[in-house]
Amino acid sequence: MFALALRLARTRLTASLAVLVAVLGGAAIVTGTGVLAESGLRSHLPVDRLAGAEVVVSADQTVQPSADLAVALPERGSVPAALADELAQLPGVQSVVPDVSFPAAVLDPAGDVVATTDPVTAGHGWSSVGLLDDPAVTGTPPTGPREVAVDTEMAAAAGVAPGDPVRVVLAGRTSDARVTAVVPAGAGVLVADDRAAQLAGQAGTVDLIGLQVDGDAEAVADAVGPLLPAGTIVSTGDARGDVALPEAAAARSLLVVLAGSLMGVPLLIVGFVVAGALAVSIGGQRRELALLRAVGTTPRQLRRLVAGQATVVAAVALVPGIAVGYLLAGQFRRLLVHVGVLPDALPLTVGPLPALAAAALLLGVVQVAARGAAWRTSREPVTQLLADSRTGPRTPSPGRHRAGLLLIAAAVPLSVPPLLVQSPIGAASTSLAGIVAAIGLALAGPLLLRRVTGGLARRLPAGTSAPAWLAVANLHGYALRSAGAVTTLAMAVVVALTYTFAQTTVIDATAEQTRAGTVADATITAPGLGGIPAGLVDDVQAVPGVEAVAPVSSTTVLWPMRLLGEEELSAGPALVLPPAGAGVLDLDVRDGDLADLTGATVAVGSGAAGARDVGVGDQVQLTLGDGAAVEARVVAVYGRELGFGSVVLSADLAAGHTTGGLADSLLVRTDGDPATDRALAGLTDRPGVTVSGGGVAGDRPAAPPEVWINLAVIGVLLGYLLLGIANALVAATAQRRGEIATLRLTGTTPRQVRTMMRREAALVSGAAVAAGVLVSAVPLALLGLGFLDRPWPSGPGWLLPATALVVIGIAFLAIELPTRSALRSPPADALASQG
Amino acid sequence: MSTALAPATTAAVALRQVTKTHPHGVRALDDVTVEVPRGSFLAVMGPSGSGKSTLLQVAAGLDTPTSGEVLLDGTAIGGLDETRRTELRRDRIGFVFQAYNLLPALTVAENITLPLRLAGKSLDRAWVQYLVDRVGLGDRLDHRPAELSGGQQQRAAIARALVARPAVVFADEPTGALDLHSAAEVLDLLRDLVDDLGQTVVLVTHDPAAAARAHRALVMADGRVVDTLDHPAAADLAGRLVALREG
Ligand SMILES: Nc1ncnc2c1ncn2[C@@H]1O[C@H](COP(=O)(O)OP(=O)(O)O)[C@@H](O)[C@H]1O
Ligand SMILES: [Mg+2]
Fold first, then answer.
1. How far apart are CA A304 and CA A309, in angstroms?
2. d(CA B28, ligand 1 centre) in Å
3. CA gyration radius, chain B
4. The predicted structure's pLDDT at residue A197
5. Mind listing the pLDDT tens digit for each residue in A472-497?
6. Domain co-membership, A20 together with A54
7. Binding site membership of B28 for ligand 1 (Cβ less than 6 Å)
8. What is the mean pLDDT of residues B96-113?
9. Which of A51, A488, A757, B96 maximizes the CB count within 10 A of its CB?
């Protein structure tokens, strides 16, 4: 059976090639996504600064919802300092190193900030050298408030050595100090331990406790476990890397979310392309299959044979496909780092799991699709089959048609979420709705096409040329085959339109809300210092012409929601705003007042509030970015949720729950006088301070990162889809040699054959564009209504014409080239080789 | 042998010293000279591989001879390009093959009138009606080929071959895929058309019973015409074929 399968696969080269390419691309996409998912779960940041402590005790930076994946928290949590003494008593523990961190920066002699990777947590106590792998210290420990130690990189950049004076900015305060020691790279800026605790603003708590142990770290970790209070974890080995930088570790979990959201649509498309290629390939073998049935192959054996044959081709394609997938994941990681959502330090986990998953998944899809495509051929009576296989077109089944119409109808409710939830998640359902409708179109296509072309054939004017008439007759007669071409091309149109417009609409709507909501006209930041330095607010306030100023930060908040009776927990961005924020941001407050943001209060977006049924005056339970559970009173409900997030925390509530504790930026509203702008620009004299025009709330990007990532994904996906379509179309056209030969023997000139095929290409691509636009129209209209209050989306105007051109170009090329090749051989030969 | 036939000008088709060498050096036709008078029914017989189909394809302008001349209705068709040859075929020649004669996407009526449509000619309704009645498909015009029996398909193919009133109808084993009864029907139809319409027919077959309906039968072997029988009897033909196989 295997040898027979192999031979059959060989005799249908173009069709096998189409299956091969479909599986190869599919394997690449699934493997790539799998690598991202595995990395999100298992990859670790380098241990770096904690390498000298074999066991690390820290706050648990994850929240574990009942069923779902753990949510990683980006803000540094803390553990009781008293725990250190307890842990020191344990057997095997050599020494115990409590660690705290605070924003710190070193200035060079010119007064410029020395660049470091993470100024927000660069400052530590002296004892943290004990965490280092290589405690090579030159100099003496700093004591008192005017002494610091700096790491070698900073020392080199600032040009200082032990004994030299240096200007430092510690927790937002600039001071003159003396360098007492130079410590290994990555250690940051170190001060005396008691001062570090002060600067970190932590009394009785520390960020983490490192244990240097004798012998087996795991044994010590096991002994530590029972001593820990709730919400505290112990880490050893590679896991320590995640503990060092919670923010970077939280970014890692983005990979899981991403892979999850990536899985849906690409998997649908992979299934669609693979099934399409197999349908063409198996359709081209109906004659052989009918003969096999005639000589006694049972329906089951036939399906096994067809599936076996497809599996052979798929297996050949899997190896390079998987290899490409690993490369693709690497490219993707680079993109994520570039967009700034993934720390560069985080490596990908390259294991065999994604390859195995891709192989299993693709082989499964191939088996199901092949058996499905062979189903009818395997079941029909042999006599019927033989008659059919010689004379061609089958009638599309009404059951399939109804299923297709049902799917198209189901796409309408799937398009509704953008009306309810103005978020990237809401927008994601637009492309999903489009694709579901396109799959429905693929099912209902043959009968729809038969009706449309039937009507067209009846309405053709009397003078229609023979090729044009034949083109219509072919589309009508071979509805199943032609609909395959039309609907796959329509799928490309739908994916291009819905996927791209969903992203661009979110980007534009977000930008529009941010623009409309920001009444500030200048933004002041100090990224090199780890946040806005102390006193800068007052100084800005004192500038003549400044009407309002407010420090703004962004953090992460978990606001649980009951969805379909289940607790949904997902981390969302949140602004941190003082009461003065009302003067620089116009969040479109519907109820309450932002000026009431004092104490344990929040303002919430109207959509999020509606979904949870809360209003002004209600108490809400939130989990802050460091894992602290808080209860807060809602003081305002606002409309510009897309631009500013669903939750705004009062600065009082967030205090102590953000890493570093300094504000990300100052938003400033002025009287608009150029003199005021000049005076503000003068603030850049201060080390590390930058002033830019316009207002940007916090360090929020113009649109959520997943939007940009989705745009990159669509490129890969469309390329794959179009390649698959072109291949299937070439294979389908190549299978029409016999038909072309019969036409020529009947007296059709080569020119008439070419004209006929071009007319078909025109009709097929025209129908595809029309169907694609029609099917996308409802989801896109609802998207526009939800996000922009108008029934059309926002995005590049060239997208539709460009998509149409590509689809038309592919249809013409994929039909023209095999037609030319078929016309080159004498028609009698072509017929002889058929029968 | 062929010198006994009518003068060249009256022949519907004539092959003069035609040689056809296929790639790999197979000489499928070796210096063949044949004339088919108008209104005559010629059967071409011979064992498999003897060059029958090649003869038909060269005579019909589907293939070009390696050397020699082919005249259709007195016109040499050598030197015409593929488009001109196609147009000539469309206007002057009808074909019936063993299978794949009809386009599955078209109805019977559309298949039958396709040559006229391709040539941009107007439809002679009375003629078409006459043809479909003659082939017995008057009630099947809106059916697709898949809904017809093999014999009905071949009869539709014959109607299509005749619709443009060709000079010659070429049929290459048109009954090869049919049961005996249907085959007899198709062959009788061909003979009737010759008798009633004066249609010239060239029939390739290896069935002596089929060839027995012709005015004349050529027997081929190894690319040559080795025998010519006028008003052949099936038994005679069968004898020649057996002799060829044994010799
Ligand atoms: N396209 C071709 N290429 C090479 N050889 C061919 C081709 N067509 C036919 N032949 C050879 O020419 C000879 C005559 O073939 P054909 O005319 O088909 O015979 P018949 O129809 O009598 O069975 C055979 O030996 C056949 O193998
Ligand atoms: Mg033959």
1. 8
2. 6
3. 17
4. 84
5. 988 888 888 888 889 889 999 998 99
6. no
7. yes
8. 86
9. A488
Answer whether A752 sits within 8 Å of B106, measured CB to CB. no
Give the one of A476, A477, A744 whose C-beta lies nearest to B86's C-beta: A744
Of A478, A827, A828, nearest to B105 by CB-CB distance is A478
Mutate to test the interface with B, among A745, A753, A760, A834 (most CBs of B within 10 A): A745
- Dist CA A148 CA A181 (whole Å): 7
pLDDT digits (tens, 9 = 90+) for B38-93: 999 999 998 888 999 899 988 988 888 999 999 988 888 877 887 888 888 888 88
Task: For residues A49 and A244, give the distance between their C-alpha atoms in angstroms, rounded to a whole number.
Answer: 7
Q: How many Å lie between the alpha carbon of B17 and the closest alpha carbon of chain A?
A: 22
Q: What is the Cα–Cα distance from B56 to B74, expressed in whole angstroms? A: 17
Q: How many domains does chain B have?
A: 1
Which is the closest atom of ligand 1 to the Cα of B47?
Answer: 22
Q: Please enumerate in sequence order all residues whose Cβ is within 8 A of that of A424, keeping only pairs 6 or more positions apart, or say none.
A: A506, A704, A706, A707, A710
Residue A571 has pLDDT above 80, yes or no: no
Each residue of A45-98: pLDDT tens digit?
A: 777 778 778 888 888 877 776 656 677 788 888 888 888 888 788 887 888 888
pLDDT at residue A374 tops 50? yes
Contact yes or no for A831 and B95 at CB 8 A: no
Would you call A469 and B146 a contact, using CB atoms and an 8 Å cutoff?
Answer: no
CB contact under 8 A, B100 and A747: no
Q: What is the pTM of this model?
A: 0.78
CB contact burial A291-306 (16+ within 10 A = b; e otherwise): ebbeeebeeeebbbbb
Residues with Cβ within 8 Å of residue B160, at least 6 apart in sequence:
A746, B94, B101, B102, B111, B112, B113, B114, B115
Of all protein residues, the one whose alpha carbon is nearest to atom 16 of ligand 1 is B51
- Is B104 within 8 Å of A392 when comparing Cβ atoms? yes
Task: Look up the ipTM and state it.
Answer: 0.84
- Cβ–ligand 1 distance for B20 under 6 Å, the answer no
pLDDT at residue A67, as a whole number: 59
| pLDDT, tens only, A15-51 | 788 888 888 988 998 898 888 888 888 778 777 778 7
- pLDDT surpassing 50 at residue B220: yes
For residue A388, list chain B residues with Cβ-Cβ distance below 8 A.
146
Q: Which residue has the higher pLDDT, A7 or A557?
A: A557
* CA A550 vs CA A338, A580, A604, A706, A745: distances in Å: 30, 6, 19, 29, 84
Total residues belonging to chain A: 835
Three-class SS state of B143: coil
Rounded to the nearest whole angstrom, what is the distance from the C-alpha of residue B18 to the centroid of ligand 2? 18
pLDDT at B169: 93
Question: How many angstroms separate the alpha carbon of residue A707 from the centre of ligand 2?
Answer: 65
Contacts of B78 (CB under 8 A, 6+ apart): B64, B65, B69, B70
What residues make up the domain containing A616? 519-693
Q: Which of B89, B97, B101 comes nearest A747 by C-beta?
A: B89
Q: Are residues A67 and A209 in the same domain?
A: yes
Distance between start and end Cα atoms, chain A: 24
**CATH code (residue B204):** 3.40.50.300
- B101, B119, B120 ranked by CB distance to A742: nearest: B101
Q: Are residues A835 and A717 in the same domain?
A: yes
Residue type, A433: A
Instruction: Give domain status of residue A443, yes or no.
Output: yes
Compute the nearest-CA separation of A392 from chain B (Å): 6
A406 and A476 housed in the same domain? yes
3-state secondary structure of A598: coil
Same-domain status, A299 and A438: no
Do A91 and A75 reside in the same domain of the chain?
yes
Indicate the residue among A218, A233, A250 that finishes a domain: A250
Residue A298, classed as helix, strand or coil, is coil
Rounded to the nearest whole angstrom, what is the distance from the C-alpha of residue B49 to the centroid of ligand 2?
7
The number of distinct structural domains making up chain A is 4
